Amino acid sequence: MFIDTHAHLDYVLQNVQEDQTITDLDFLFTDQLESIVHISLNPDRFLRDYPILSKHKNIYFATGFYPNNANIPNFNEDQKIEELKKVLTDYKHVALGEIGIDFKDDSYGTPMAQQSLFEKQLALAEELNLPVVIHSRMSFNECYHSLSKYKTSAILHCFSYGIKEAELILNRGDYISFAGLLTYKKSLEIQEVAQMIPLDRILFETDSPYLSPVPLRHKSNLPSYVQHTYQFFAKLRNIPVEELSLIVKDNFQKAFKI
Ligand SMILES: [Zn+2]
User: Fold this and answer.
1) CATH architecture classification, 2-17+25-255
2) Residue 225's closest CA among 41, 32, 40, 52?
3) How far is the CA of 8 from the centre of ligand 1 (A)?
4) Most exposed: 5, 133, 172, 205, by fewest CB within 10 Å?
5) 181-190 CB contacts, 8 Å cutoff, 24+ apart
6) What is the 101 CA–ligand 1 centroid distance (Å)?
7) What is the pTM of this model?
8) What residue segments make up the domains of the chain, in order of their start?
């Protein structure tokens, strides 16, 4: 059985739903998919989607302000953090996230604004004793610096760095989550990390509907496609995929305190 530790089900449902409203979410759980962590990009979206998604017992929730919220004019950070805190305490969550820093382009906000929003959420996670799901693109040093100030445990989602960065994360006792990116031909650095990483520190995810793994790159991603990333990793490490999935289930329960 497989677990997708990072999917945006609101976007997935938008893609498949077109005109009809979805009432039965079983269609997501094909091909031995057991559980999904749904990531809401802000508390309003969480509240909008919760009535539908909470109908399925194998969907878990994480909510946080995605880094690009730092670029919203007049974003009242303290008030927004209070709104997030309310949602995280009123509804069962397995993590705070995804949060972090992204330097891909200017649309994410200034480094200072992103760092401030990130650190306020790290402090909240520490207060609520929740793990954080971290989004870090072209910003490893900045994310690591902020993370180091807090005791909260972390899952580095869609890992896109090399061995040096992986070791720093592993030394903190945190988890590394591999997305479809791992299966891409050009992802040699990430594959190098996959070769050496201790098996008790890994998770797999789709980041659906984005980043479909090989051989489905032309398709919109679905949580069940996570099996291809498991299979790629199992082959790389020469272990049976059934054995890998048992290890990862254990990691999932530890990382998200389930
Ligand atoms: Zn995501």
Assistant:
1) Alpha-Beta Barrel (3.20)
2) 32
3) 6
4) 172
5) 181/211, 182/213, 182/229, 182/232, 182/233, 183/213, 183/214, 183/228, 183/229, 183/232, 184/214, 184/217, 185/214, 189/161, 189/162, 189/163, 190/159, 190/160, 190/161, 190/162
6) 13
7) 0.95
8) 2-17+25-255
